[in-house]
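FAQ

Q: What does a record look like?
A: Structure on top, sequence underneath. For example:
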């Protein structure tokens, strides 16, 4: 998994200070460091694009005031309700060799047999899964081969396995399913929501 370098500057804490940061065209943020005092920072909005607008998970190499780099992951992002502008960031510091929990996007690969042969419809249900692993083992995304899926067959979290990764999302969570085509002889899509696992 690649790291994304992000340069920031220190800032004062409090609502008034945060408003001043936003008025200056910057985004306020905080790094939580596992029981230690949180580290406030401010960063340019444009610099956040590769961090926020991406379909991949990553470690952020955050440098504040050109000091020591802090490796962290995104914990939360707050957007303005009307404009969708980024108004605040929460990062969580990670340490090499110490397991962390993180959400990772899911990507389906291939055309299912049930779609290709029977004209069914693939439904991608779980787009992100929570995993636990050391930072170096965090995948950019979870690739799942769906070419073998026939009509009314599905993939659950319990069907997945990645070396060095523990799935925190429950094993019974449905990730993807191939529904029968509408008007076909197979069970309707509403009845196929909980089919037998392959």
């Amino acid at each position: 998994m690649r790291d994304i370098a992000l340069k920031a500057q220190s800032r004062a804490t409090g609502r008034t200070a945060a408003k001043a940061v936003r008025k200056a065209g910057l985004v306020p943020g905080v790094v939580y460091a596992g029981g230690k005092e949180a580290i406030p920072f401010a960063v340019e909005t444009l610099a956040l694009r590769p961090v926020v607008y991406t379909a991949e998970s990553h470690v952020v190499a955050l440098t504040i005031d050109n000091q020591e780099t802090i490796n962290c992951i995104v914990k939360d992002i707050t957007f303005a309700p009307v404009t969708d502008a980024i108004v605040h960031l929460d990062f969580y510091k990670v340490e090499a060799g110490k397991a962390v929990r993180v959400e990772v996007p899911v990507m389906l690969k291939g055309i299912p047999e049930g779609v290709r042969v029977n004209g069914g419809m693939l439904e991608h249900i779980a787009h992100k899964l929570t995993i636990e692993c050391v930072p170096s083992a965090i995948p950019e995304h979870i690739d799942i081969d769906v070419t073998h899926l026939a009509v009314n067959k599905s993939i659950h979290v319990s069907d997945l396995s990645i070396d060095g990764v523990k799935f925190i999302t429950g094993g019974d969570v449905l990730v993807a399913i191939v529904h029968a085509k509408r008007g076909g002889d197979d069970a309707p899509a509403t009845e196929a929501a909980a089919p037998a696992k392959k």
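Q: Is there anything notable about this one?
A: Helices lie at 15-23, 49-52, 113-116.
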